[in-house]
Design a protein that fits this description.
The protein has 632 residues and is an alpha/beta fold. It is built from 15 helices and 25 strands.
Length: 632
């Protein structure tokens, strides 16, 4: 990956439930990690069905948001394939004839009339309620915007074969932007909005560089599609399940009262079963450098892109992880805004069941609308928002002009060691032989059958006793499933930010897992970053996930190197003893003492993460310092 530009900044410098009204009588959005299978409340009347020339209001169809009129449209994709795309258009109900408005566009697989990821029990057809929270939170129609939802090829009312963020879907995004800009009710200024998959299409829109696209808001996207399915050649649990999940969404039946054209398009896969086979085949390509994945490397394709971009990213989220985020932002040269912090797969305005904001920060809808007003309408913001609002591992929020802010970059030599690539088996066996209680022999594997909206909230962690016992066995001179390297205690607090990188030379075949731990003086340790890879010949380099983690004074940074011991990957251990040498750890460091605070509370998910990934580690002999000379 490319190194993010390092900015030296001196001292001067749901889990939400979409609260639908009783009149709308729509289904609640499932919490992240849950299937979207909630039944819709009973609806009291049949809804009128819109066409391109017959607009429908809320009074005629209670699935239409209040204050909007709904129409449906069909238009071709831009690749000449004959693919026909379907759009649901919501215009301000009181828009005067001849008056034009800017367009907020969302393109994705979750806008089918029957439901987002499965049938939701609606009594009649109507536009998707996926982003009703955004519509209501911004008072979008009274603020003078249109909202357009376009089904990607193969989904909802669109024809064609699925092409997961590939050239086909990129052509769909291009066509949707062009179509939205050229409508008689459009000013020609388009902004994109989405979360998860429809945030991915926002990143695609930015990469395309179309003049009509003025701004993109992308919440919790995937930055490089390969990373969602593989980690440096090691398959993830969803390597086949995600393909199956999207095939299932694509074959969802239409509503009985959908118009004939929509119904025919929605049943495309019934007469084109090869589409489902082709979609599944792409996910099975393990080579990151295959053309299939290079065409979907959104971070690489973002080079020199300029669309104003507003992103959110949970550093500790388990679904769309912060992998290649730094490369994407480095390659993007336009204006940037971001909320980054310690949350899971949530939207900016989501709240937990007890009413707390899932990201911990107020004002999402106001800030997003100000962003669109600035770039789609040319209205100067009334509030001076920070370019980046960032929450670190302490739960504190700070404002900064970019991300990451790097006070100092360091490369630390960690030496080497040996481990057995056995998935933790030798560690358990050694414990059993010594008479000590061994951790469970296996970690439950997640099913792997999820789409980008519904992954598990946390990865399965290694058994809590295993890291501690492996560290004790290392002290006793035994070679087991991993080994640890320890820093000296920190003299002052320091933040590890950006994308840590570990390079090494390994002898042997198999897998390698790399983990970073924040270890308190009493041995309480939090695993805060990890990555895995197939071993490669010669010198190899592995980027970990992007992070923003503060180590307190007196704490130690521990690095674990060894076999893959969690249920987060479908690894096949080689059984070989792997000899590792020349390990180097590259870190970007920031100084928490120089933070400029900004408003925000601790994200609730941070405590869930800490409970899941806190273990005990007996601190070993120090072999490196995190901050050479102690100066940042």
């Amino acid at each position: 990956m490319n190194r993010r530009r390092a900015t030296t900044w001196t001292a001067s410098a749901l889990v939400t439930t979409l609260a639908l009204t009783a009149a709308l009588a729509g289904p609640a959005t499932a919490a992240p990690g849950k299937a979207s299978a909630l039944a819709a409340p009973a609806q009291t009347r049949t809804g009128a069905v819109a066409t391109a020339t017959r607009p429908v209001t809320h009074e005629e169809n209670d699935r239409v948001p209040k204050g909007a009129v709904w129409t449906q449209h069909y238009f071709p994709s831009s690749d000449g394939s004959g693919t026909e795309l379907h759009a649901d258009v919501l215009l301000p109900e009181k828009l005067p004839k001849g008056r034009k408005v800017p367009v907020i566009l969302s393109v994705g697989p979750y806008f089918a009339h029957a439901g987002q990821t499965g049938p939701e029990g609606w009594a009649h057809t109507g536009p998707s309620s996926r982003f009703l929270d955004f519509i209501e939170g911004t008072d979008l129609f009274n603020r003078g915007y249109a909202f357009v939802m376009v089904d990607l090829r193969g989904f909802g009312g669109s024809t064609g074969c699925l092409d997961w963020a590939g050239p086909g879907e990129q052509a769909d995004v291009k066509a949707a932007i062009d179509w939205a800009a050229k409508q008689p009710w459009s000013t020609g200024a388009v902004g994109m909005y989405g979360k998860s998959y429809d945030a991915v299409t926002g990143l695609i829109g930015n990469n395309l560089g179309q003049k009509a696209l003025k701004a993109v808001v992308a919440q919790e996207p995937v930055w490089d599609m390969y990373q969602y399915i593989y980690s440096n050649g090691v398959p993830r649990p969803n390597v086949t399940g995600t393909a199956n999940a999207y095939n299932s969404i694509a074959t969802m039946p239409p509503m009985p009262d959908d118009d004939p054209r929509y119904q025919a398009n929605a049943r495309w896969e019934e007469t084109h079963p090869e589409c489902l086979t082709q979609n599944a085949a792409g996910y099975r390509i393990a080579d990151q450098w295959d053309k299939h994945w290079r065409d979907r490397d959104l971070a690489r394709l973002a080079r020199n892109s300029r669309t104003p971009l507003f992103v959110t990213q949970g550093f500790i989220e388990n679904n769309t992880k912060p992998e290649e985020m730094q490369e994407y932002l480095d390659n993007h040269v336009g204006p940037e805004r971001g909320w980054l912090g310690q949350w899971d797969h949530v939207r900016g305005g989501d709240r937990t069941g007890d009413g707390r904001l899932a990201m911990g920060r107020e004002g999402w809808y106001d800030e997003v609308l100000s962003f669109y007003d600035q770039y789609l309408k040319g209205i100067k913001p009334k509030v001076r928002y920070p370019a980046y609002a960032v929450q670190d591992s302490t739960g504190s929020w700070r404002a900064q002009p970019t991300w990451p802010v790097v006070r100092r970059s360091v490369v630390r030599s960690l030496g080497g060691g040996s481990y057995v690539d056995d998935g933790g088996a030798s560690g358990r066996a050694a414990l059993t032989a010594s008479g000590e209680p061994a951790p469970p022999a296996s970690v439950p594997q997640p099913s792997g059958t999820w789409d980008m909206e519904n992954a598990p909230a946390t990865d399965p962690a290694a058994p809590k006793a295993l890291p501690e016992n492996l560290a004790r066995l290392q002290k006793a001179g035994k070679v087991t499933s991993s080994f640890f390297v320890w820093s000296t205690p920190l003299k002052r607090a320091v933040r590890i930010t950006g994308t840590p990188n570990i390079s090494l030379t390994a002898k042997g075949e198999g897998n390698i897992m790399l983990k970073l731990y924040d270890v308190a003086p009493d041995g309480t340790a939090v695993m805060f970053d990890e990555q895995v890879s197939l071993l490669r010949r010669g010198r190899m380099s592995v980027d970990l996930k992007a992070t923003d983690w503060t180590l307190a004074a007196g704490h130690v940074l521990a690095v674990e190197i060894g076999s893959i011991q969690t249920g987060s990957w479908r690894a096949t251990p080689s059984g070989e003893t792997i000899k590792v040498r020349g390990v180097q750890l590259r870190l970007a460091l920031d100084d928490p003492a120089r933070d400029i605070p900004t408003a925000g509370e601790r994200a609730p998910f941070l405590d869930t993460y800490l409970r899941q990934y806190t273990v005990k580690l007996p601190i070993g002999p120090a072999t490196f310092t995190v901050v050479p000379g102690g100066r940042l």
